[in-house]
Amino acid sequence: MMSPVRHLGLSVLALLVIAHLAAAQGVPMPMSHEMPDTARAAVLGTISFPTKANPASHAAFIRGVLLMHNFHYPEAAAEFEKAEKLDPTDVMGYWGEAMTYSHPVWNQQDAAAARAALRKLADKREVRLSLASNARERAWLESAEILYAETGTKAQRDTAWSLAMKKMHEANPNDHEATTFYALSLLGLNQGQREAVAYQKAYELVLPVFRAHP
């Protein structure tokens, strides 16, 4: 069982609470580039996200996840690329890099770049999935494969990814990473349009985590 998120700075958890309030009050969500400097300077925090990578690669992976949670996507991608170089056999670095190219809150996605990141692991989807060291890592990697599938519209792929994250969350409700990514996925279902129901559901998912680890 994964250890809980202990602190995530001004992270996805905080933004989901803000999103709920924004939807309730009818005000627009801030764009990522509009976040104040104080937010970007916030402490990234700590998480527990086990992988089979060697220690140096795993440390870079953790930094990447924390940066991604705090919406520093280019910096996160750089850390994941570092993790890949330090341990090319670990699938999670490639998963992480691919995920930095999807920004559900702002309806931004570079599927081509994400697919290129996944192909660094192996050319074929089936081969990539076979390289996962356990069922949990395979589930994470498969979620990225679903999000960046070669077929389907962005809206269809976003929906399929959200369903995959829901499955992961329901399989282990104590996995705060799965819960957080599931909540985030819900905000991508509206394709850039404010949807109070999605915000409410995401808010309800992350609020217990946010309260336990402010």
Task: Give your account of this protein's structure.
The protein is mainly alpha-helical. It has one domain: Alpha Horseshoe (Serine Threonine Protein Phosphatase 5, Tetratricopeptide repeat), CATH 1.25.40. 61% of the residues lie in helices and 2% in strands. It is built from eleven helices and two strands, in the order H-H-H-H-H-E-E-H-H-H-H-H-H. Strand 1 and strand 2 form a beta hairpin. The two termini are 21 Å apart. The model is unreliable at 1-10 and 20-42 (pLDDT under 50).
Strand content: under 5%
Q: N-to-C SSE series? A: HHHHHEEHHHHHH
In total, how many beta strands? 2
Number of helices: 11
Task: Categorize the overall geometry.
Answer: globular
Instruction: Report the mean per-residue pLDDT as an integer.
Output: 83
Indicate the CATH topology.
Serine Threonine Protein Phosphatase 5, Tetratricopeptide repeat
The percent of residues in helical segments reads: 55-70%
Helices and strands in order, then pairings?
Elements: H1 12-25, H2 37-40, H3 55-69, H4 73-86, H5 91-99, E1 102-103, E2 108-109, H6 111-119, H7 125-130, H8 135-147, H9 154-171, H10 176-186, H11 196-212
Antiparallel strand pairs: 1-2
